[in-house]
Specification:
By secondary structure, the chain is mainly α. Helix 9 (about 125-130) packs across helix 11, helix 27 crosses helix 29 and helix 30 packs across helix 32. The longest helix has about 30 residues, at about 675-705. The chain is elongated.
Length: about 1000
Amino acid sequence: MTPGRRSSTFTRLLRHGFTDATAAERLLDSAELAAVRDDPVLLEALGATADPDLALHGLVRLLEAQPGPTARRELLDTLIAAKPLRDRLLGVLGASAALADHLARHPRDWEVLVTYEPRDLHPGVAEFERGLAGAADPVALRVAYRRCLLSIAARDVCGTTDVAQTAAELADLATATLRAALALAEAAAPEDAAACRLAVIAMGKCGGHELNYVSDVDVIFVGEAAEGADEAKALRSATRLASHMMRICSETTVEGSIWPVDANLRPEGRNGPLVRTLSSHLAYYQRWAKTWEFQALLKARPVAGDPDLGQEYVAALEPMVWKAAERDNFVADVQKMRRRVVENIPAAEVDRELKLGPGGLRDVEFAVQLLQLVHGRTDATLRSGTTLDALQALAAGGYVGRADAVQLDDAYRFLRSMEHRIQLYRLRRTHLVPEDEADLRRLGRSLGLRTEPVTELIREWKQHTGVVRRLHEKLFYRPLLDAVAQLAPGETRLSAEAARERLEALGYADPAAALRHLEALASGVTRKSAIQRTLLPVLLGWFADSADPDAGLLNFRKVSDALGKTPWYLRLLRDEGAAAENLARVLSAGRLAPDLLMRAPEAVALLGDGDGGGLEPRGRAQLEQEILAAAGRADNAEDGVRAARGVRRRELFRTAAADIVDSYGTDTKPVEADQGALVDRVGGAVSDLTAATLAGTLRAVVRDGWGDTLPTRFVMIGMGRFGGHELGYGSDADVLFVHEPREGVAEREAADAAGKVVAEMRRLLQIPSADPPLLIDADLRPEGKSGPLVRTLKSYEAYYRRWSLVWESQALLRAEPVAGDEDLGRRFIELVDPLRYPAEGLGEDAVREIRRLKARMESERLPRGADPKLHTKLGPGGLSDVEWTVQLLQLRHGWAEPGLRTTRTRQALAAACAADLLGAEEAAILDEAWVLATRVRNAVMLVRGRAGDTFPTESRELAAVGRYLGYGDGHAGDMLDAYRRTTRRARAVVEELFYGA
C-alpha cells in the first residue's frame, strides 16, 4: 500500500468517526474484508454506528467465525446489497460488544436480522414464544433468548422502535422466557406439575411492560392444589417447580445466564414461603402489608403458568391496591421510602445514578405511582402499570399539568434511552453513567449526538435530571392550585373531588378549608398571587411533611394577608431558598412559633438569611444593649417595658424557629444530630433573653420612679432553671431579690423603694398585650411565700446563719446574679458558697433529709391521673431524678471538686464523671434522659402553645411532638416506648447513686 493511499484512507476513517484509524486500516486490509475493502457503502454504514471501531472489529470477528468461504461471501453480499440488514447488523455491532460476542459464537444468528416483514417490526409474546420454541434445555434457551434479543436491539439502535416500544418488547420476551423456563421445569418433574396449579405474577418493570435490557425480573408465585390433591403436598410441588424455573433463568452456563429471577417482593420477602395460596396472599395483604407493598402491586401482571389462577390473584388484590391511599400516613410512607432509597446510594455514585439518584428515573416513577394510588380509586383510566401510559392518563384527566407531563415524558424517555444503551454495551445490569471518555462518546453517538457527543450528552442528561428534580414534587401539588385558579382555554382542571382526595392523602383534616385558603392565596392577577402560585406547590409539600398541614396552610395565609403588600416579603420568599422552607416548617410545627410571628409578622425576615445567621441566637450582651437602649428612649416605664417585651417576643420567635428548623432539618441543612446541643442552645438563649428583659425592665422602672439612681443597691439572683441557664419556652423566672441601702439612706426608705421596684416590675411584665407575659416567681426566698419579697444582704446572711434548711442549700446550687448591681450580686454569691458547697460535704443526717424530701415530693406532687412513667419532671428517670442526683453529688463533693461548682446540670454531671464520682456509662444514661425530658417539655410548649410536663393526649399534637423529636408519622408509639426505655435506665442509676440502693 502506497503512503499516499494510506494517508487518504486514514483521513477518511477519521472523518467517518473512527478513533483508532490505524487499527481500522489494518482490519479493512484483512482477508475477510478483501472483497469489500473499497466499497464506500460499507464505510458510510460503519460511520453511522455508535462506535465505528467496535462495529468494524465485531464484523471482522463475525466473518472469521463463518463456517467457510461460501457462508462468508453470502454474509458480505447480503450486507452490501441489503440496507436493512446493513443498518441492523452494523448498528448492533457498534452498540453492543456482548451481542458481538454472541454472534461470534453463533455465526449464523445474523440471519434473524435479514427478515424485514411488517410482523417483525413489533413482535409480541406469541412471536417470541415461537423464537424460543426449539429450546429443549437451559443452554439452548439462553442461545434462543440472545437471538431474540438481537432482533430487539437491532430495531432499537436503528430507530425502528422507540424506547417505550423497546421496553415493552423486552418485557414480552421475558414473559415468553418465563413460560419456556416453566415448561422445562414441568417437563423435568411431571408429577409436581400434575399435583398443583402455579401462576407466575410479574412485578416491577416486567409487570409494568417496561423492562430494561438487563434487569432482575421480579415475580410473585401463587399456588393451589390440583383437583383432588393435598394442599400441603401441592404447595411443596409448586415450590420445587418455581425454584427450578428460577434456576433455569438465573444460573450461569457456558452461554452465561439470562437474568436473575427475584421473588423478594412476595409477602414477608425472602423470609416468607416462595409459593403461597391465593387465600394466604389475601390474608397477608389484609393484615400485614406495608404501603410500599401495595405500591409494588400496581405493576402486578400474570405472565406464566395457570392463567385463570393468575387472573384470580390480580382480581382479588386489585381492590386493596386502590384503597392504599386511605391508609394513615400514606403519602409520608411513600415519600419516606423514596428518601431512604436516595440515602442508601454510595456518595461516590449518587451523581452518576440514572435510576435512583435525585432527578432520576425513580423520581418520575414514584411521583406517577403516588398520583395513581390517590386518584385511581375513583378513576379507572389511571390504572396502568406502565409509567408513560399512566403519566399520559394523568395529564388527560387533569391530575397533572399538560406542560409538566410533556417535560417529564421527554426526560423519562431520554434517561431510559441512556440506561438501555449503557446496559446494551456489555449486557450488564448497571444504572451508572460511565466515566470513561470512550464510553461516553459511544453513548452520546448512540443517542444521535454526533457533533460533540460527550459534551452534548452531559448537557442533555443534566438538563433532563434538572427538569425531573424540579417537577417531581411539584407534580403532586401544582394541580391543587389549578383547581382553584383560572386556567387557559383547553386546559383540564383537577375536579373538586379529586383535589379533596389529594389533600386528604396529604394529611389535611379539612380539605374544604384548605381549598378555600388556596383559592384566596392563588387567585387573582396581582404580582403577589403570581409569586404565591409559584411557591405554594413547594410549600404544600413541606406542610404535608408536618403533623398539622391544615395549621401550616392557615398560618401561611394569615402571614401573607398581613405582609403580602410589603415588597420585601414576597422578594424574601421568592429569592431566598431557605426562607420559604424555614417559614413552612415554623408555621406547621405547632402553636407557639406561629403565635409569636402573628403578633409581629415582620419577624419573618429572620428566616431569610441564607447562611442561617438570621436564626443564630444573639448573645446576652447584645440583647441587653438593645433592650436597655429601647427602654432608655421610652417616655415612661410602661413604654420602656413594652419595648423590652417586644424585643423578647421577637427573640423568642428567633429561638423557637431555629429550634424547629434544626429539629426538622431542611433540604439544605440536615437535622441536628446532637440533641444535647439543641437543648443547651434553647436553654442558653431563653435564659439570656430573660436576664436581658429583666435588666431592661429594672432600668425602665428605676428611671421612671427615681431617675438615674435607686436609693438602694438592687440585684436579682436567678434560681432554678433560670440560674442554671436551662429555661424552656414556658418557664417562669425563679429569682431572689437582694438590696442594700446606699450610704445615708434609711433602712425603711431603702426597703420601700426595693419593694416598689419589685411590685412594678412584676406588674409591667404581666400586663395583657400582644407580647407573652414574663412571670417572676420568688417562692424560693427564705421562708417561702410567708417571708418578705425583698431582703437586704445582711438579712439573708442572718437568716442563712440561723435558720437555713438543707433544701435551701440545695436550691442555692442554682443561684447566679442575672440583673442589677454586679458588686452586690458577687457578694451574695460569696455569702451562699459555703452553704451550697459545705466544707467536708454533707453529713449523713442531711443526706437522709434530702432523700426523704425527694421521696415525699414524688408521692405528693405528681398530678392526679398522670402517668408517672411519662411525666417529664416528676416521673421516674425524669428531670427531678437526674437533677437531685447531680445536686446531691455537688453538695457532697463541691467543696473538693471545683468542676462541680456550676449552676448547670449537664456541666456538673460531666464534672462528676471526670472526678470519677460516677461511671461514664452512668453519666451518659443520666444525660440522655435529662436531655430527652427537656426536649419533650420544649416540644409540648412549641406544639400546644402552653407549658406541660406530660405528652399530649390528642393524636395530632402527639404526632407533632414526635415529629420534633425525629419520629415520622405513625411512630408516636415508638416515641413513647423510647422515652419509657430511656427513663427506666436513668431511674436504675438514680436508685443506685441517689438512694444508695
